[in-house]
Amino acid sequence: MNDCIFCKIIAGDFNTDFVYENDYAVVFKDINPKADIHLLVVPKLHVESLNELEDEVLLGKLMMTVKEVTKKEGLKSYRTVINTGKEAGQEVFHLHIHILSGGII
Ligand code: AMP
Ligand code: ZN
User: What is the pTM of this model?
Assistant: First the structure.
């Protein structure tokens, strides 16, 4: 999607450092962290939100990506959050899973 900030990040437009990447997703640090460690797991495919996601296999792969990156980063305790819809606090309309660990605000 042309004006989607996360699609631009995935395309490398901002030279964002990826903490982790696999065939389906990239993981990068949240620009406005709400915990000591705040990562975003973002599918390479543009899907607006969980409401628009129809691919259950992709959903499983995204959750496995959470496991992979937290293992790689040595995180044993963390919270995962998916905000869906403006009223629930979704600001970026490209599906993403927050990973929050340590000193969560
Ligand atoms: P949400 O409110 O669930 O849509 O979360 C969007 C998250 O993306 C927020 O926590 C923002 O701080 C984060 N964010 C927005 N723009 C960027 C960016 N360019 N790089 C990293 N994180 C971003
Ligand atoms: Zn997008």
Answer: 0.97
Question: Is 80's C-beta closer than 6 angstroms to any atom of ligand 1?
Answer: no
| pLDDT greater than 80 at residue 104 | no
- C-alpha of residue 31 to centroid of ligand 1, in Å: 6
Pocket of ligand 1 contains residue 30 by CB under 6 Å: yes
For 31-62, how does the pLDDT look when each residue is reduced to its tens digit (9 = 90+)?
Answer: 999 999 999 999 999 999 999 999 999 999 99
Cα angle 48, 55, 66 (rounded to 5 degrees) comes to 80
Ligand 1 in reach of 91 Cβ (< 6 A):
yes
Structural domains of the chain ordered from first start: 5-104 (3.30.428.10)
- Give pLDDT, residue 2: 73
Catalytic, 38? Answer no
How many CA atoms within 13 Å lie on the side-chain side of 61? 15
